[in-house]
Amino acid sequence: MSTSTSTVFDRLTGGSQLRSLLIDAATAARSGSVTHAWLFTGAPGSGRTVAARALAAGLVCTSEVPGCGECQACRTALAGNHPDVELIQPQELTTGVKFARDVVEKAHTLPTSAPWRVVIFEDADRMTESASNVLLKSVEEPPSRTVFMLCAPSTHPRDILPTIVSRCRHVYVPVPSNDDVAALLVAEGGVSEHDAALAAAASVGHIGRARHLAHNIVAQQRRAQVLGLAELIYHGDLAFQEVGVLFTKIEAEVDQRLEPIEASEKEKLQTAMGGGMKGKRVASLRSSLNAAEKELEATHKKRRTRQKRDALDLALVDFAGIYRDALITATGAGIGLTHPDMEGLSREIASRHPAEAIVTCIDAIMKTRELFGQNVRPVVALDSMVGRIRLALGVR
């Protein structure tokens, strides 16, 4: 067995046990022995989808060594454009029966060039119970050449149906250390060791966020804006004004990012349903097209809602990090800081307030994150958060 670091498995950060398990599975598949349903669990950003894609590459690899990382099959599988590797990425807050049926339909498509048809389903925990039951039937009796790979935070019933768990081979992907994430970013190129270490610490082991933060100037500016809010807490109404600005910017950025995607999807729908046709069939087609466009608009609205909530949630994770750092300093915990470049601010907070008050600040932020999923207007929740933090710190 090759030990070259160019293999898809050697690039994983989940440890030698995880790599060995996936290598053995890809090797066994060469003789037709393969588990048809997998469940990859781990905290968001741990790399559970990365691990699933690595196994998928190993299954479709055309080299003598499964998952070589160099053949066209491996490269396209990792890039997301291999014809026999289907990556399902839900874009809404929840996924229903129709979505699950689409997944099942894709799973029943025969492979075109590879020995296996691989269906990777991200965020499987977002399925409704009805959708889970639809998927369960295919997981129980999958097509002979199809391999399901579901990704979820855990095997807890709130995340995934127990009957689905019982029919899958479970693979736990641990959260990588900051050093592992930083090393990965440096190995990928374009990031200095200093910037990689900062991105890894600020992202708390979330590989995707660390990569985005290291390479995206807008993300870096957003982080600085969010962390600066901890200073504005002490300056009258400025913190209230700032969370309003933050919310408006996040909404605008999501809208701007999704507009061209939505326009392209609408154009494809119109083309597929003969939107430009003329003649006797136009009237009947128009009715069907209008119905389809309304359904697409509803999908777009749900997608925007999810992405705006996700962006706000990530901002609050960053914000909570500065108070976590202050608590570490106040208690002398002696563990790494989330925002080492903002150590001066976290030390100032620690010097001005007792640990109990800092804990109350963290609780206020966590409560606000929960409110985002309870149909509370985000700007109202943010204002309330600022008020509770000011009260906890005795700011007038």
Task: Please sum up the structure shown.
It is built from 15 helices and 5 strands. It has 396 residues and is an alpha/beta fold.
Could you tell me the number of beta strands? 5
**Which structural class fits the helix and strand makeup?**
alpha/beta
The fraction of residues in strands falls at 5-15%
Tell me the series of helices and strands, N- to C-terminal.
HEHHEHEHEHEHHHHHHHHH
Number of helices: 15
**Quaternary:** single chain
Low-confidence region ranges? none
For the biggest sheet, the summary is:
5 strands, parallel
With strands numbered from the N-terminus, the spatial order across the biggest sheet is: 2-3-4-1-5
What brief labels describe this structure?
15 helices; globular; 5 strands; alpha/beta; 396 residues
Structure commentary:
Helix 7 packs across helix 8, helix 10 runs antiparallel to helix 11 and helix 11 packs antiparallel against helix 15. The chain is globular, with a radius of gyration of 24 Å. The protein has 15 helices and 5 strands. The protein has a 5-stranded parallel beta sheet with strand order 2-3-4-1-5, sandwiched between helices. The model has no long low-confidence stretch (mean pLDDT about 90). The N and C termini lie far apart (about 65 Å). It has about 400 residues and is an alpha/beta fold.
Layout of strands and helices, then pairs:
Blueprint: H1 16-29, E1 37-41, H2 48-60, H3 72-79, E2 85-88, H4 97-107, E3 117-121, H5 129-140, E4 146-152, H6 162-165, E5 169-172, H7 178-188, H8 193-202, H9 207-215, H10 217-232, H11 238-272, H12 282-331, H13 343-352, H14 355-371, H15 378-393
Parallel strand pairs: 1-4, 1-5, 2-3, 3-4
Helix pairs in contact: 1-2, 2-3, 4-5, 7-8, 8-9, 9-10, 10-11, 10-12, 11-12, 11-15, 12-13, 12-14, 14-15
